[in-house]
Design goal:
Elements: E1 7-13, E2 35-42, E3 45-48, E4 51-58, E5 66-69, E6 75-80, E7 86-92, E8 109-115, E9 119-125, E10 130-132, E11 135-148
Amino acid sequence: MIRLTRRTTLALAAISLVATSLSATDGKADPADGKAEGTLTVNGKTVKVAYAYARSVPGFFDKNTNDTKEGKLHAFEITIDATGTPVSTAWRHNGFDGPMPSGLSSADVFTKKVLDDKVVAGSYKSAAEEEFFGNTYAFDVTFRAAIAR
């Protein structure tokens, strides 16, 4: 049994093309990995997500463990700890007028389907539209991505 000791950061991209180099620990990625579905909505404008990218990075709270993190794109980024619990989110979206929100709400619904040393998969949905410095935002996404090291 493999014990995860890293956190994973996942980025869900809402752009038409993403050039990434995904690799699992064996150097091969499942063709189904790196995909996402759903929507990101900022100030009433909705875009569809189509790509997911994940990488393992030092732990958010404990640097001796790693979390999984998605890349930094025009995207919604989710940091998931080794237990499969979201610990942070961040927006990378040019639709915001001013600062972009980060953090998370315990009311949002996260469903982990897979989190092992090679793949992260699940879904995440905001409980309601949120407001941040006069901007509104919401998300409803499903994803699957190989975890790059």
